[in-house]
Amino acid sequence: MRDNMGDHSHGGPNDTGTVAKAGPGPLDTFQDPGLPPHRKRLADTDPRAEKRAERQVAWLFVISIIGTLSFFIAYFVIGRTDSISALRTQNMLLGLGTAFAMLGIGVGIVHWAKTLMPDHEVSESRHEIRTEADRQDAAKIIGDVIEETGIKRRPLIRNTIIGAIALAPIPAIFMFRDLDRTGATAGQIVDRLRYTMWDKGVKLVRDPSGTPIKASDVQIGSTFHVIPEGLSETEHPLNEKAKAVVLLMRLDPGKMNISPGREDWHYNGIVAYSKICTHVGCPVALYEQQTHHLLCPCHQSTFDLTQECKVIFGPAGHALPQLPITVDSEGFLVAQSDFTEPVGPSYWERG
């Protein structure tokens, strides 16, 4: 019996018409179906609905203005005391004010586009790019767009959106400017970032108890969260702590890879490094005793303690700054100096 499994002369896809093939003549072209019929909205046919939509859009822009003004009231009036309740109220109003300021503008523009701006579809033929004629056409298109928005003939919407957009960026300006209220110059601000409370002879004390640390208290594998002595007596202890906090650990000196010039920065394997991650400033607080790795919990930057906290993984830009330490006559750990480089993330004048 003849095997016809490989024979496609009868019933194959090329003979049954299931596969379309181009004929010898020109290919047929598809007809342009045209645009779908335009469905008018209620505001297109009812003048009262149009005015109502216009008032709704204006009210949304007014809500944005009220949100911005609420931000100003919370920022400049509330929270001028040290009361926790006042600060909570201020933070709540700052958040709500910013939210309504942005939400009013966004929802107002969307509602304006959906109810009042022309929504008919248009079709334009593609043509070759020309010079002067194209510029004139572009200018005409821009003019048509402005005309279609109806902003010229809708003064209520125009005035409220101008007010909302003009006020919305001002809170951000005040917030950035208020990062420093002392009137310091840019150089003075950079110095504040560069220098900390650490200095020659300043004791290393436990955070938060303030107990001084003896070298004999630090065992291999142990970790201490450390601040400079006298931190609580400063005018702005939290600001100073944000720059000066360090991690204190002890390693086997034989496992340490020490750079030239840093030979005396440690004491019998006891080392101190800035706790502030060099990526975005999160506190580095996880120490793997077996691998001698320090980890930042925010973005998983990893620093190798045996290589002077060199970055071995993650987005951090450079190693953690090391604090040179020694011991005093009583055996307490003290700093030899301040950090020799700025702590924390990179900034515009670092280095």
Task: Please describe the topology of this protein.
Blueprint: H1 13-16, H2 42-45, H3 47-76, H4 84-115, H5 132-149, H6 155-167, H7 170-177, H8 186-194, E1 204-206, E2 223-228, H9 237-244, E3 246-250, E4 270-274, E5 286-288, E6 293-295, E7 302-304, E8 310-313, E9 325-327, E10 333-335
Antiparallel strand pairs: 1-2, 2-3, 3-4, 5-6, 6-7, 7-8, 9-10
What is the name of the CATH class of the largest domain? Mainly Beta
The main β sheet shows up as: 4 strands, antiparallel
Largest sheet strand order: 1-2-3-4
Q: Which shape, going by the Cα principal axes? A: elongated
- The chain-level mean pLDDT equals 83
Integer tally of domains: 2
Beta fraction: 5-15%
How many E strands?
10
GO molecular function, one term: 2 iron, 2 sulfur cluster binding
Membrane topology: Multi-pass membrane protein
Organism: Zafaria cholistanensis
Family: Belongs to the Rieske iron-sulfur protein family.
What does this structure look like?
The protein has helices spanning 13-16, 42-45, 47-76, 84-115, 132-149, 155-167, 170-177, 186-194, 237-244, and strands spanning 204-206, 223-228, 246-250, 270-274, 286-288, 293-295, 302-304, 310-313, 325-327, 333-335. β7 and β8 (310-313) form a beta hairpin. The relative contact order is 0.08. With 351 residues, it is of the alpha+beta class. It has two domains: 42-120 and 133-177; 191-335, Rieske Iron-sulfur Protein (3-layer Sandwich). The chain is elongated. The strands form three sheets. A four-stranded antiparallel sheet has the order 1-2-3-4. Helix content is 36%, strand content 11%. The chain is built from nine helices and ten strands.
